[in-house]
Every structure is written in C-alpha cells, then in structure tokens.
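Dear colleagues,

As part of the handover before I leave the project, I'm documenting each prediction I ran so the next person doesn't have to rerun anything. This entry is a single chain, and its sequence is reproduced below.
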Amino acid sequence: MNKISNIAIVGLGQIGLYLYNELKTQTKIIQKKTGKTIKIVGISAKNKKKKRKFKIDNKIFYSDPLKILKEKKIDILFECIGLSDGISKKVVELALQKKINVITPNKALIAKHGDYLAKIAEQNKVNLEFEAAVAGGIPIIKTIKEGLASNRINKVYGILNGTTNYILTEMEKTGETFEKVLKKAQLLGYAEPGNPKLDLNGFDAFAKVRILSALSFNSLISREKCIMEGIENIDIKDIKIANQLNLRIKLLGISEIINGKLFETVHPCLVSKNTYIGNVNGVMNAVITHGKPVGESILQGEGAGPGPTTSSLLADLMSVLRGNIKYPFGISFLNRKKISVLNNDKYTNSLYLRFEVRDKPGVLSLITKRLAKYKISIKRIIQTPDKKNNKATIAIITHKTTEANAKICLSVFRKNKNILKYPTLIRLYN
C-alpha cells in the first residue's frame, strides 16, 4: 500500500458521519501509529442536502456509491449503509473485486453473505474487516482471530444487544412496564425511534451469534433454523418474580458445540444475580468464551452507538494500514467446514413457567398433573392471588426437560378456560 491511502465512506448515517469526522480529526494520530497518511477522496449518501451534525465536503460527495469505485483510486472502503443486500452487497462485492480493502460494521451483511465475500477478499488478497459488526467497541473479533488463535473454543455466549439489556435493567430498577421503558430507550437514542423490532425480537443478536460461531469454530456460517426469541413478551411480573428468586432476566446469544454438533440460539434467560453475566447491566455488552488451554475469557464494554462502533472501525483501519492482511474469518475459506447442527428439540433446560389463571380449586392441580404426565418435574412454585379480580399468578421452576417435551406439554393449556393466556416460558441459563 502507498504511503498515502485513499479512503471512501459509503453511508453517512449516524455511524458513517461520526467516522467521517473522526478520520478528519485523527489524521495525525493515525499517521504516527501506522506510518501512513490517509486522505478521504469520496463519500456517499442518499441525500446530499440533508442537515448533518458534522459538515461534509460536497466536492467529494457522490450520490451513487458505485461511481466512487469507478472514478477514484481507492485503497480502503468503509461500508456503513447497513443493509444485508442491495447496494450494501453490491458496493462491497465490487470493491473487493477491484482489490480494495473493505471495513464494515454491517452485521446483517456479514451474517448473510460473509462466506461469499470472504472468498472474494481472499482471492484478491485484500482485507474484509468487520470488528464493529459484533458488540460495538469490544474487540471480540480480533480476540478470537488473533489473541485466542491457538485455542480450541467450544462455547461463546453473552449479552450482544445493548438496547434489550437496557430495557430489562430499567424494568427491574424502576418497576415500569416494557412499553414505558421502551419509549424511554427511544428518547435516549438506545432504541430506534421508528421500528426497534430487530433489536427487540432477537434478530440483531442472532446475526452476531452466527458471525461468532464461524470465527470460534472455524466453520462456514450456519443457515439452519434455530431458536430465536426476543423480549417483547417479558412482563414486569416476570422481572419481580425473578427478583424473588435471586435471578435476573437477560437476553443471551449462545453458540456452542454439543456432542460434536453446533447449537446456536438467542432467547431470554434467567441467570443468577451471583454470576458475572447477571451483573452486566444498562447498555453494556459482554462476550464470554470457553476454550482450551485458555479456559474462560471475558470481554465487556459498550456495544452500540457511534463512539464505540467507530473505535472498532478505526482499529480495523490501522490494522489494514499496517499491512496486516488476514483471512476474514481467521482461516482460509477452503479450510472452513460446515458443522452439522443439533436438533433444537433435543436442547435441554430448566424452565420458568408463568400461568395466569382463574383463582378456583383444582387449577393448580391441573397444571402439576399435566407437567407430571410429560415427566417435567417441579423444583419450586410461587403462587400470587389477585382476590379482587378472582385471578392468580402461578410461577413454576422446573428441572431440566427438552424443548420438544415442553412444547407438547404446554400446548394443551391453550384449550383450557381456566388458563387465561398461554403460559410465559423463560429458560434458565445452564
């Protein structure tokens, strides 16, 4: 790479614009640490006239991002559009084919097309870097690819979405409902003001899980259907009952090798307040790996926002400027393998079950008999009557059972008039 490195930024949303400003203000620092001078020669966004927090140079503005690649000599491209397909994929694909290094925070793109794009990068001997795609400012990608490169990792899990972690933390702290806390998160900028669905339903965390799996297990990105649940159905009642049990609810992304097979999932978990993961609160993220010979490794930090994300983007930039050409997923595409997946129905967990019922004789007996029929044994019961409305809340902690067993067992409760709504199910973290 030449001493002067030409840079283009595609996408001037919150992240892209913040990055643009940091690149302009940190030129000297970058030069000191890498020996290279950077020059921004092209930027692109939908709307040139949009009012932005930082002033942009209109002389280098392109409405068509592909035109930058065709008209300018580019060494490094930052893709900050954020789509899994369409123009995001086109611009990254073309850049790699033209032997341009690519840096992106786009987890959706990497989770869906990472294998394909990594192959192109390797063929053209350029970098495809995506540290910012998982857990914002936490250097988990470099940690797995480099710091833990000699380890046989068998499990990686953690809190991978700051929005959901903030909501669950605030619900516990304030006693407010999910809806009220969500509005607060939107006002603070932690949740999308329009449609926060991808955070809340677990999709955001799941894309990160798939990337972490491929890195940790030297595998191709899995395409199999897995358990994915969000926090939309978590009620303040669940938060309060968990507190009684010295537990907290956390949305966990989990990837592990079980009996030689891959298991990936994102779902709410009840975790002990005495554990490390149970005390990662607010907008913080945390990623925990298990491997040999290292044992357990923990990384924690802010997982979202323009600051932490840009920190990771700049770290990737400095790595590229230093000439560190690496396989995008740690090893060559040719050596990465497809791992067969664990049948989700065989996944075992202790369960938290919350029933809203009519407060009348025989209802509790009905529930316990049904659980017993499917060999789901009860560890603890908490019953809270609502005498004013002639209702009751029954919370049950079970011993371990399979996913399949739990589904079949609970399905019957849809048809019973004394069970007022389908039971809430939250898994305990194993």
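The first strand starts at residue 4 and ends at 10. The CA atoms of residues 3 and 36 lie 5 Å apart.

All the best with the project,
I.
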